[in-house]
Amino acid sequence: MLPPGHTAIAYIAGKLTPKVSLPATVIGGLLPDVDICLILWPQFNQIHRLVTHNLLFIATLALLASLVVRQRRAVVCGLLWGGLLHLLVDACFDTNPSNGIGIALLWPFSTQYFSPINLLVPPQNPVTWHQPLAMFRQTMTGLWWEIPPCLVAIGLRQRLNRTKH
After folding, report:
1. In this structure, what is the dihedral angle of CA atoms 125, 131, 136, 142, given to the nearest 10 degrees?
2. What angle do CA 67, 64, 85 make, to 5 degrees?
3. What does pTM read for this prediction?
């Protein structure tokens, strides 16, 4: 899933979950894809959904945040909640078999990829991240899965804004 879908899902979850920080939930929902800044690195395909898409990464970031932020509980819970949602979504919506279907949930203890169900069918001739433009085009075919959560998030935000006025 692309950042708009992850943002929408984290926003919806943050709005509907009491006692978590909404900004932290959205940030947690995006943080596992921080490795995208390494997309031009030749080994990117081998590390994407491995080093940052696991429970240790999410827990480490939440722990680090707990050391530097106020409202620790709300922020830590938001980061964990958003990060876990990101992992779940990527485990269930994956079209890139070149780096394993799903996520390496227990990395570094295991490199086995976890995908309880995959709701998308990987392409017959998948491209890799070594071909960023081709990969982007391939990824765009799954964009329609992101539209419903984005629409729900927009509607939720508009509804909540109307009730405040």
Report:
1. 20
2. 125
3. 0.84
